[in-house]
Amino acid sequence: MVAFPGPDEDKDVEEIATTPGLSEIFRADWKKAARLYARFGTRRRNFDSESPYVGICRNVTRFAIPRGLLRTSERDRRHGRTQTARPPDTVLFSASVTRWMAIYFFEGPGAENTAKVVQAVKRRLRQNDINKVLVASESGKLALELGKTFAPVSVICVTYDPVTRRKYQKPALRKEELLKQGIIVVDTVPEPLTRSLTFRNWWEKKTVHLPGPSADLFWMTLICVGGHGFRTAVEIVFVAVEAGVVRAGERVVSMAGTGWGADSAIVMTASRFEEAVGEDPKKRMKVEEILAMPKRTRWTGYG
Rounded CA gap, 150 and 39, in Å? Predict the structure, then answer.
């Protein structure tokens, strides 16, 4: 996770994740502001130019730091000057910082990561700009556990269609319990894994229609990036759009796992599967944020 280092690192992450802006924190505690620069090894000019940094989200705010705390620049060193030798005045910085996000990278995939994934999603939902969470769940058990956890955000349980459930002998869906708890259930749309895909070839500037076997490269790429949970998190967004419970262009949180539980969570701009990488850039999918994912992939079914 990204955090201010030290004994109160967890407290810092929690404080930052639940605060609309960082300016109040930095005005109250300039030491934290100083540690921000030390943590990223940066200087004022980097923030003035809005250079991107891992874990930092853009939205301009202003805060003050005593000049003497800034690192000595290379130019100052060449001329024998130091920042601390200058008058102890205060400098205002225009910085592209309003919040920090805790991102979990797990050593491996699996259900043991579920609690951390839920924690990451809860923190993200505090920003109140997303009102739907998609959960991949075979029996509905995970969705039932999360129904109240994410309230008042709508929880959508995306699961197998009846034909696929019978074919692979998946456990029975606890649909009545899900509906009784107010959870939306998507269980009629087949997986898009074997479907053809329209692909806009950037290099040759032409549109290519890939048949199912060739379109599997799309899914393989997602697995290479983040594993089966990551791939499934993307997949269920397409399924939800086809079912009509999510609009194309809508931003949602989607979480899934490798086997049971959850080990991946993303924020994604939804699209129809047929348009995910198609001709119209405005209709394409976009994984906007990664909230959690495993660093290693378990190649289930791929040999």
Answer: 32
